[in-house]
Write a structure and sequence with these properties.
single chain; 5 helices
Length: 138
């Protein structure tokens, strides 16, 4: 009996221990990038509604810069799905810039959906809200 309990206990400790080690507070720099993305996405929706193409271009440039920082963050942590999400977001932002410069409403709509979906999917996979309403990286 002792032979079955010890491996089970070791397994439970390993699983819970990794969960505790894996969760971390984001750095202030990373938090600033995330806040910038949130603010830019909010402004982007208004700029799209207003058909303010110059502002959409500026939003796209901000998003591209942010996604480069996000990709670097996740590359350092070697988290493949988050890296892929950041790359997809950067491509969506680049496509958004091109569409805005061409004043292509269909292109803007398609690219903005890509950008929004990459944010949401990565948050679902790698962000956890704590009871104090702050976030932790999981």
């Amino acid at each position: 009996m002792r032979r079955t309990i010890v491996p089970a206990v070791v397994m439970v400790v390993a699983v819970f221990g990794l969960g505790i080690i894996a969760a971390e507070k984001p750095t202030p720099e990373f938090q600033n990038v995330m806040k910038s993305n949130g603010a830019t996405n909010g402004a982007l929706r208004m700029h799209i509604t207003a058909k303010d193409y110059d502002a959409i271009v500026a939003d796209a440039v901000t998003l591209k810069d942010n996604y480069a920082k996000i990709e670097a963050f996740w590359t350092a942590k070697k988290v493949d799905d988050a890296i892929a999400s950041a790359k997809a977001g950067a491509k969506g932002a680049a496509d958004l810039e091109i569409a805005a410069k061409a004043k292509s409403d269909d292109g803007i709509a398609a690219a903005s959906k890509v950008v929004a979906s990459t944010c949401g999917s990565c948050h679902m996979a790698h962000r956890e809200q704590l009871p104090d309403k702050t976030f932790e990286i999981k």
